[in-house]
């Protein structure tokens, strides 16, 4: 399916802000090709929340033994659901990775015998539908994008195609990142993935602190953190550590060079 068709049809807007948002999404997700797999996962989740009709999202990636690990989540509920799937080895997200195929559970009220416990947990948390999309690199599943809805029904055909395109870009980016290091290449290295998970947690904490301190929304706070890190030639995780520790100061307005891309009008 061609990206142009997605841009024209998603949200009924063929140009303007929607098109610009999709273009920025692909650019940010592809940033991992320059060596930042964590940021690709962040971008994939962030733009999935903006562009798709979902209430929660998460990304799991494989380590160098092929085992799935939860890397980025949007809420404690998503974290709990992913943890339950990984613990039990069952669930739509795990199944999507195992089969390298999209798995949709459109109505959690209808039990699926493959993952009864997950269905009960999801329903009790208010989740009514799950759409899992494999993150594929060079033909192999290296992770999964997990999308959660609070109303029954899967994504529309157009949004489902966009979700697959976004996940596909992330798969290419993460695979190229993994291919730059020696040793097994089924996913991120164990130490690298552990560091990514730790960085994700500190970035989320720093983003929340910036949002409260600067009185801005979470998306804008994350964009500010990204741009300031780039301007200071720092890894986002390292800057986030400094923000949490109180050794880095970020104030608004930023200089022209430091204005976050698409911080305004992207919601």
CATH H-level name of the largest domain... which superfamily? Answer: GAF domain
Strand order of the largest sheet: 2-1-5-4-3
Biggest beta sheet attributes: 5 strands, antiparallel
How helix-rich are the residues, as a percent range?
40-55%
Oligomer: single chain
Mean pLDDT: 81
Strand-pairing-aware structural class: alpha+beta
What's the Cα radius of gyration?
Answer: 18 Å
Kindly report how far apart the N and C termini lie.
Answer: 25 Å
Runs with pLDDT <50, length 5+? 1-14, 256-267
The H/E string reads: HHHEEHHEHEEHHHH
The CATH class assignment of the largest domain is Alpha Beta
GO molecular function: RNA binding
Protein name: ANTAR domain-containing protein
Keywords: Transcription, Transcription regulation
Pfam family, one: GAF
Could you explain how this protein is built, in words?
The chain is α+β, with helices and mostly antiparallel strands. The protein folds into two domains: 3-188, 2-Layer Sandwich (Beta-Lactamase); 199-258, Arc Repressor Mutant, subunit A (Orthogonal Bundle), CATH 1.10.10. The chain is built from ten helices and five strands, in the order H-H-H-E-E-H-H-E-H-E-E-H-H-H-H. It has helices spanning 3-9, 17-29, 37-51, 76-88, 92-99, 116-124, 157-178, 190-214, 218-231, 236-245, and strands at residues 56-62, 68-73, 103-105, 129-137, 140-149. It has a five-stranded antiparallel sheet with strand order 2-1-5-4-3, sandwiched between helices. Strand 4 and strand 5 (140-149) form a beta hairpin. Helix 3 (37-51) packs antiparallel against helix 7 (157-178) and helix 8 (190-214) packs across helix 10 (236-245). The radius of gyration is 18 Å and the shape is globular. It starts with a helix and ends in a 22-residue tail after the last helix. Residues 1-14 and 256-267 have low confidence and may be disordered. Residues 183-244 form the ANTAR domain. This is ANTAR domain-containing protein.
